[in-house]
Design brief:
Layout lengths: L8 H12 L9 H14 L5 E2 L5 E5 L7 E7 L13 E2 L3 E3 L3 H24 L3 E7 L9 H9 L4 E7 L5 E6 L1 E10 L3 E2 L9 H12 L10 E10 L5 E2 L2 E10 L2 H21 L4 E10 L7 H19 L4 E5 L4 H5 L4 E4 L4 E2 L7 E3 H18 L1
Parallel strand pairs: 3-6, 3-7, 7-16, 8-15
Antiparallel strand pairs: 1-2, 2-6, 4-5, 5-18, 9-13, 9-14, 10-12, 11-13, 17-18
Helix pairs in contact: 1-3, 3-9, 7-9
Length: 372
């Protein structure tokens, strides 16, 4: 019997609702990690480890193995709430901030472990289950980095269950994220008029950064995401900061845009000697490295087969920014797809539709059966 046949639907949906209520901002996943560890102990009778990065890890047949398949789903969400999250369930959908990204996949992986654990242990292959931290935003893939470092040279393929089945990510979009801060003497808006204003200076600097002509090859972007500064309407701002990022699916293009960033800041500092400039790298996601194209294609094809055969969809294979950035940058085959089928991702109105969710769970189960 399949894990996600109707007999287990209520168990799955109840588990998903329970997980959704547990807040898990990036870097603050302790409550979810503890819940997952206790659930596996109670429901699967298996002992897990929570590592220093707040990943919940369960190795199966991994002792002395250097051919491990990593199966992962991230526990964090984009929301900063540290109080219980709202959940609304109807006959057709479950709505909750973070329900599809990526809590649904967290629940799927747990239930698959519960009902297929003997299949995994009986296999001649090695698997590492991980419910990992810090995939979102400035979490900077800390959880995945920790796993890949701890199992260096032993993991040979990675599947991150995240996103939806309408697309498969098999190429990494790299990014560099900076916090830029400007400091000036400031003063009173009337009495000290003419003094350097940090907000105005930041506006001029951002305008310079936006003069970049992106490379013509690959896909390349840049963006100012936040800007903060000033004290009051009648104060010449003494400080201002912004968060700025570059993204590219090609390593050489990311490096070129990074060089432009530093050159622009250096030139601005030279032309504005009364302004102090600070730059801090707050996030770095690497691009794809030298991955064996045949192995990468074979892994992608397994997912494509399960998706098209069960759903009838023709998923788009494309690049993206996911936990797979880390293994792909190390030359390890990796793909990302998942159980997100609904709308409102990264908003408080996020929801998943129950019929589509159950179908996608069956797709992931079918895919894993081919790996065992």
């Amino acid at each position: 019997m399949k894990t996600f046949d109707s007999i287990h639907q209520e168990e799955f949906l109840s588990l998903l609702e329970e997980l959704c209520q547990i807040p898990a901002p990036s870097g603050q996943e302790e409550a979810r990690a503890s819940f997952i560890q206790n659930w596996i102990d109670r429901e699967c009778k298996l002992a897990t480890v929570i590592d220093n990065a707040k990943n919940v890890r369960l190795p199966i047949n991994c002792q002395n193995s250097s051919d491990i398949t990593l199966l992962m789903a991230h526990t964090d969400t984009v929301f900063s709430d540290i109080v219980p999250m709202p959940v609304l369930r109807t006959d057709t959908r479950i709505a909750s901030p973070g329900v599809g990204d990526d809590t649904a996949c967290v629940a799927m992986l747990l239930l698959l472990l519960k009902y297929k654990k003997q299949d995994f242990y009986d296999s001649q292959k090695s698997f590492l289950f991980a419910w990992n931290s810090c995939e979102e935003g400035l979490g900077n893939l800390k959880g995945c980095r920790q796993i890949m470092a701890d199992y260096a040279g032993r993991i040979t393929q990675v599947i991150s269950f995240d996103g939806g089945v309408a697309g498969i990510c098999n190429h990494a979009v790299g990014s560099l994220r900076y916090q830029v801060s400007l400091y000036t003497k400031g003063g009173h808006s009337y009495n000290d008029f003419g003094e350097e204003n940090a907000i105005h200076a930041m506006s001029c600097l951002i305008a310079k950064l936006y003069e970049l002509k992106v490379p013509s090859t690959g896909r390349n972007t840049y963006n100012v995401g936040t800007i903060n500064g000033g004290t009051s309407v009648n104060t010449i701002a003494q400080s201002c900061s912004c968060l700025f990022e570059y993204r590219s699916d090609m390593r050489e293009n990311l490096a070129a845009m990074d060089a432009f960033f530093h050159h622009t800041l250096d030139a601005f500092a030279k032309s504005h000697p009364n302004i102090k400039i600070e730059r801090k790298l707050v996030g770095e996601r690497p691009c794809t490295g030298d991955v064996d194209p045949k192995a990468q294609q074979e892994l992608t094809a397994l997912a494509l087969d399960s998706i098209t055969r069960i759903s009838g969809l023709a998923p788009v294979v494309s690049s993206g920014s996911t936990d797979c950035n880390i293994p792909l940058s190390l030359g390890i085959p990796a793909i990302c797809f998942g159980g997100l089928m609904g709308d409102g991702v990264h908003t408080r109105e996020e929801y998943v539709t129950i019929p589509a969710l159950m179908q996608e769970a069956r797709i992931i189960e079918d895919f894993l059966e081919k790996l065992i």
